[in-house]
Amino acid sequence: MLPPPSSSLTTTPSVCSNLGGNEQVRNEIAVLRKVSMGHQNILTLVDYFETMNNLYLVTDLALGGELFERICRKGSYYESDAADLIRATLSAIAYLHDHGIVHRDLKPENLLFRTPEDNADLLIADFGLSRIMDEEQFHVLTTTCGTPGYMAPEIFKKTGHGKPVDLWALGVITYFLLCGYTPFDRDSDFEEMQAILNADYSFTPLEYWRGVSESAKDFIRRCLTIDPGKRMTGHGAVSTSFCGREG
């Protein structure tokens, strides 16, 4: 199933208002040293080295490409297959959050398949914008970081953000998987931001959502909740009917 003609299936770069390239790499090293060997759905850091001008990471080889590429190729996923992918991603997110890490740039371009097979492990990658934090630091993260279409309202508001931003991004990814287009795609960046701030999305056109269950839609709604305090947690999302069933 292909997305409506108005939808855009182009990659969008990540932004962060106060991180340079090498700083992002150092940040990624710090995060991956803490968690990369502990979960099968997180890209493993094998080694790293520094030259006069650059820092380099050596990671496990992910030969299966990006989730974004597969969505573009397929158009959309069957709900059971989408649930499998979200379940694996959620397991890794919950692990990160348990270790005090917020990713801040979850999107299909940063979810990689270990091998080209359809049932390959899905790996969270690109931790350049991630932060190691404690619960007490929730209001410290105020920089604008992420990829606009996947960023939570509180990031735009600069009122302080933390782990809940990853669940918002996961809601956007789930929506994208099930219909082949993103919920807040608009004609301008400003209109996109306003749509996000107001959670202005719908499950339309109906023909793209006719076969999608109410539990899947409810999962998306609970991720795309404006108030981060009322948004699902990683562990809470794992136990929903959408993610709890095995495909």
From TrEMBL:
Domain Protein kinase: from-to ranges: 1-243
GO molecular function, one term: protein kinase activity
Domain of life: Eukaryota
Pfam families from the UniProt entry: Pkinase
Keyword Nucleotide-binding: yes
Keyword Magnesium (UniProt): no
InterPro entries: Kinase-like_dom_sf, Prot_kinase_dom, Ser/Thr_kinase_AS
Coiled-coil residue spans: none
UniProt protein name: Podospora anserina S mat+ genomic DNA chromosome 5, supercontig 9
Protein's organism: Podospora anserina (strain S / ATCC MYA-4624 / DSM 980 / FGSC 10383) (Pleurage anserina)
